[in-house]
Amino acid sequence: MKWNLRLAAANRGIWKASELQRMLAGAGLRVSAGKMSGLWSGRPASIKLDDLDVICAVVGCGVEELLIPEPGRIGRLTAGQHDEQAAAAPQAGPAVTPGRRDGRSLPPA
To answer: If we measure between CA atoms, which residue out of 76, 75, 73 comes closest to residue 1?
Structure first.
C-alpha cells in the first residue's frame, strides 16, 4: 500500500503539515509532531482506524484516496511454487491441551 495523505491534502489546498495538524486538533485528534511527520512524509508505521476516520473527514476524502494499492510490489506465485508451499504446510499437528490462564500447573490426574 502507498500512503497518499500529502497529495490528497494538496488537492484540497492544505500545503503544510502544521496546518493539517491544527485542523486535526480542531476535530479532536491530537497528533504529536513525530507522528505528524510520519503521516505527512508518506510512510506511517501504523494508524488507528478511528484516526483514519478523522483524517478522512478533515481532509474531505475517502480511504481509497489515502491508501493506494500497489499490486506490482507483491511477488506472484507460479503454479509450481504454490504446490510446493501447500505440500510444505503441516496438515494436522498434535492435539493441543489448553493450560490454566494464571500460569499454574494442573494437579496430577
So the answer is: 73
